[in-house]
Specification:
Elements lengths: L2 E3 L6 E3 L3 E2 L13 H13 L4 E3 L7 H11 L6 E6 L14 H4 L2 H15 L4 E6 L12 H10 L3 E7 L9 H6 L4 E5 L11 H8 L2 E5 L23 H4 L4 H16 L6 H10 L6 E2 L6 H8 L9 H8 L10
Helix pairs in contact: 1-11, 4-5
Amino acid sequence: MRYRELGRSGLSVSEIGYGAWGIGESGWVGATQDESVRALHRAIDLGVNFIDTARGYGESERIVGQVVRERAGDEVLVATKVPPKNQEWPAKDGIDPADAFPGEHIRSSLETSLRASGLDHFDVFQFHVWNDEWVGRGDWLETVAALKQEGKIRLFGVSVNDHLPDGALALVRSGVVDSVQVIYNVFDQAPADALLPACQEHGVGVIVRVALDEGGLTGRITAGTTFPEGDWRNRYFRDDRPAQVEQRVAAIVADLGIEQDAIAEHALRFVLSHPAVSTVIPGMRSVRNVERNTAIGDGRPLTAEQLAVLARHRWQRNFYS
């Protein structure tokens, strides 16, 4: 496993991190606690030192905290997120920061997360939504500074609204944020236009989520794909969306001249080929997926020719809506 600097923070993070939404048994159907614990331990064995969870991920914080405490001899960095108090997803324009992230709510959510995880601090504490209208307004920054001073958090970050990477440019340029978490993948290449260069310029770490398009870039989504009842992907991949994804992936596979089951590897290497990216956090609910994904953190970039091919497969859309 290779490591990269998380912006100007001084922390080094594994190129492949661990996205822990899927193990929380909230939204994703099929995870079991025993397998999740085994997967987390195996990831740490293989060099993963960055785990991303959230207050809104069901049992995820508890499970992550349990494993991290069991691995006290390993330096494992844990990031979590505070949900907006007004439960507005994404953060729309015109919302007062006092309604979304008032200081008392930020502190209360953090304390709940610390109790759930059994940890004494979080290495990265993120707002789960963001709107640049909040820069310079509200008491959120004062609260974040106080939590840092108290040693309850080390770094402050935000999770950028889905498919709206330019919505955090003002925050990045303000110098008050340590990291951003953003959707960046072969389909959604928009962060490379402005956000990623800005993060490089201002020393802000970049945590990439949805690098595999919620499974779309694994090659396993086809026109006939269905998910268990209660799984949120039934909405994400509704109607003819699986057929659209299948067609797009087939075109990528053909243009690259690779086998279908190699698409996930190439999708992750595409993300890691950008120098602004600190870590990518695929969801890994099984030991098998941990072993497959962590093998990609070996520092082997895609060729310029491969990157040029993938650049032609940009597909801007929002399946969350």
